[in-house]
Predict the structure.
Amino acid sequence: MFKKINFTVEQEEDIIKKYLNGNSLRNIANDYSVVKETIRKILIKNNIERRDMRNWYHFRKYKFNENYFEIIDTPEKAYWLGFIMADGHVSKDGLCIALNEKDVYHLIKFLKDINCDGTNIKYDYKLNKVQIDLYSKCLVKSLNNLGLFNDKSYTCFYPNIQEELNKYFIRGVFDGDGSLMILKRKKKENKKQVIDYVLTFTGTILLTNKINYIISDNCNVAIKNIEIKNNGNYSVLRYSGRKQVLKFLNWLYSGITICLDRKYDLYLTIPKILKEYNI
């Protein structure tokens, strides 16, 4: 039985909070035993913008910390910002991260860090892909303020973060859109086995130029090659040389708190390889 209620200020605040957290008009109305129109009038009265019923906010099942990226003040936040900048997709409705199925535990780490109260991971077994979709205007606004937009492949820039967090942000970019190759070859003159490392970063010119500057400043490492793509909007930084790349990796993984496991495991194999070839 529906009833007429004269809502208190506290009750209206509770209704607004529930609505902004993704609850539907129907569910809120049921909580107070009123019709949906009553809840709608309260939202209009308090100048609360209605969700577009055509977008996905209405269907969000799980709650998470939508303000996670509002202030980048921890290594974990800096890391995930870098990872999303490299391997995420920001739309007007929210954030999507799609990874290879073998990296599913990395998505679980992210959901844990943003205090998600459910496991909203989608599996595509045909494409060996896992994906999460987080719908929140608040989240989108925070990421936009940090330089992440729908066309980030052309527009993203290095965010304004604390200097001591640069290493964690760059590790996130590397895990999302970088590569490390350990190459074995034989010298022509004496057929001696040698090991070479090649490390790359990809991203917009604005992003990669800043990353290169920070790497050079902290590790005294210089790029060997820059490949420019998409009419100068996109670039690939290439670092090579065993000592040079290892110097950077040691800096990147020092004080480690979070990383993509398979890339870190590859880094950990380096001492064994060097020992094997007496290098």
Q: What stands out?
A: Strands lie at 88-90, 94-100, 121-124, 129-135, 178-186, 193-204, 225-229, 234-240. The CA atoms of residues 109 and 258 lie 9 Å apart. Residues 205-219 form the longest helix (15 residues). Residues 9-50 form one domain.
